[in-house]
Design goal:
171 residues, mainly alpha, 0% strand
Length: 171
């Protein structure tokens, strides 16, 4: 009875209180009328709960950052700007270039260049279908590529087809 309840109440109390340090935790635990092994268990729980909280906070922050990043690059179509750089994106997100690079690499599983390239090629595909009258140079510029050869290289790399072959197959 009493020991178990004391342990449960204490555990709950500790988990809801921000324990600032191991010393504080040890001080709190030393004042409890419970056995050493119970103190060990509580200590482990608090440390684990703290680690889980930190991890959840980190992944929530990362998820928010990915959402903001995608909103800028995809929804606001910043990928259509030919000289758009990771530095530009970092500035807009108020993060360092390295932070942005890490987020794209770890969360989107690709480099910034590949990310932009894929978005630009997808846009070019749409233009090739919807505007067969556009020249390759027009499609390239409208899709955020510097010129037609840049579009052709990335297009072939990602689809295995040239823009012309793709256009013929989709008309």
């Amino acid at each position: 009875g009493f020991m178990l309840n004391a342990k449960q109440d204490t555990r709950t109390e500790l988990l809801h209180t921000q324990i600032g340090s191991d010393e504080q935790l040890d001080t709190v635990l030393s004042q409890l009328p419970i056995k050493e092994e119970q103190k060990e268990a509580i200590s482990t729980d608090v440390v684990l709960a703290d680690a889980v909280n930190k991890l959840n906070a980190t992944s929530a922050t990362t998820a928010r950052r990915v959402k903001r990043l995608r909103a800028l690059v995809e929804d606001k179509k910043h990928y259509l700007r030919p000289y758009y750089s990771i530095e530009d994106l970092a500035k807009e997100l108020n993060l360092s270039r390295i932070q942005v690079s890490r987020i794209i690499n770890s969360e989107l599983k690709k480099s910034f260049r590949d990310y932009l390239g894929e978005l630009r090629v997808d846009y070019a595909k749409r233009l090739l279908k919807e505007h067969p009258e556009y020249t390759l140079e027009q499609v390239a510029k409208a899709s955020g590529f510097i010129d037609a050869p840049a579009l052709s290289r990335k297009f072939k790399q990602l689809t295995g087809l040239t823009p012309g072959e793709y256009k013929d197959a989709n008309l």
